[in-house]
């Protein structure tokens, strides 16, 4: 009897049908407080969750996972916490890049990251360049990201094309705005998750979320894992997406 070839699951579409998942990673501070630990301990545990979820994204065959790590409003936090977050990010890139690269992950950044410390900008750009030729999923980290700031930058770029005479204001369409956002080359956003029980978008991917499904969970970010991501994708699979049609 001829042996039956096993289906190669890597090349079949994932059953959940989501290409791009974005996560507002919230609740690190409350996770630490519950344990009488300093907030930095919550952020450290948050980095562990980032590792788990990036691995799960591979298993779940996502094309893109976008993580909100530092918002353009997070500068309002005490300087020591901002420094801690930047230190964790620097350490994460240094320690995890080999694993990302070995797994074929392409690291991308959204947000005005160039305003960060120049040595961190160099590290980020080297990491993005090193993984750019990979063919696996994109892990996009939102750094100094604010959706309103992203839209202002897109409008400025289109306005300068109009004033240079390359296009007229009336010619500006949805595709032009899409193409000038930080997410221009990423797949459309399917599912936006926020952890920790808060139910707001906090200036995250406001344009891209136009038809994304929203999923809120009470799990605090440091407790989030591959199973929680799979549950969110199960919920996504049950949603009836009509995109304004019937
Ligand atoms: C929100 O929790 C979380 C943040 C503002 C930072 C998220 C950062 C990480 C998970 C670690 C660094 C990320 C990478 C990619 C290395 P919160 O502090 O606002 O929690 P709270 O609302 O309970 O106080």
What attributes does this structure have?
246 residues; alpha/beta; Undecaprenyl pyrophosphate synthetase; six-stranded parallel beta sheet; 7 helices; 6 strands; 41% helix; globular; binds farnesyl diphosphate
Notes on the structure:
The protein is α/β, with parallel strands linked by helices and 246 residues long. The protein has one domain: Decaprenyl diphosphate synthase-like (Undecaprenyl pyrophosphate synthetase, 3-Layer(aba) Sandwich), CATH 3.40.1180. Helices cover 41% and strands 14% of the residues. Strand 3, helix 4 (118-131) and strand 4 (138-145) form a beta-alpha-beta unit. It has a six-stranded parallel beta sheet with strand order 3-4-2-1-5-6, with helices on both faces. The structure holds farnesyl diphosphate (FPP). Farnesyl diphosphate binds next to helix 1, helix 2, strand 2 and helix 3.
Number of helical runs? 7
CATH topology tier name:
Undecaprenyl pyrophosphate synthetase
Could you report the average pLDDT, rounded to the nearest whole number? Answer: 95
Q: Residue ranges: pLDDT <50 for 5 or more in a row?
A: none
Short account of what is shown:
This protein has 246 residues and is α/β, with parallel strands linked by helices.
Secondary-structure map:
Layout: E1 20-24, H1 28-34, H2 39-59, E2 64-71, H3 79-102, E3 106-110, H4 118-131, E4 138-145, H5 147-163, H6 174-179, E5 191-194, E6 213-216, H7 226-238
Parallel strand pairs: 1-2, 1-5, 2-4, 3-4, 5-6
Helix pairs in contact: 1-2, 2-3, 2-7, 3-4
This protein binds farnesyl diphosphate.
């Amino acid at each position: 009897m001829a042996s039956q070839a096993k289906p190669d699951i890597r090349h079949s579409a994932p059953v959940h049908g989501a290409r791009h998942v974005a996560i507002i990673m919230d609740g690190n501070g409350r996770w630490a407080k519950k344990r009488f630990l300093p907030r930095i301990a919550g952020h450290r545990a948050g980095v562990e969750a980032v590792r788990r979820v990036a691995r799960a994204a591979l298993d779940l065959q996502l094309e893109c996972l976008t993580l909100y790590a530092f918002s353009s409003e997070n500068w309002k936090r005490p300087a020591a916490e901002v420094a801690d977050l930047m230190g964790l990010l620097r350490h994460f890139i240094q320690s995890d890049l080999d694993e990302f690269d070995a797994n074929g992950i392409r690291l991308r950044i959204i947000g005005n990251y160039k305003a960060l410390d120049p040595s961190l900008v160099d590290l980020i750009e080297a990491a993005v360049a090193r993984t750019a030729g990979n063919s696996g999923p994109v892990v996009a980290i939102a750094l100094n990201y604010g959706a309103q700031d992203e839209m202002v930058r897109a409008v400025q770029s289109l306005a300068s094309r109009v004033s240079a005479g390359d296009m007229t204001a009336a010619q500006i369409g949805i595709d032009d705005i899409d193409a000038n956002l930080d997410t221009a080359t990423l797949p459309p956003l399917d599912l936006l998750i926020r952890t920790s029980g808060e139910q707001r978008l906090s200036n995250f991917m406001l344009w891209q979320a136009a038809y994304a499904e929203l999923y809120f969970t009470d799990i605090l970010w440091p407790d989030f894992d591959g199973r929680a991501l799979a549950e969110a994708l199960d919920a996504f699979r049950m949603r009836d997406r009509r995109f304004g049609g019937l």
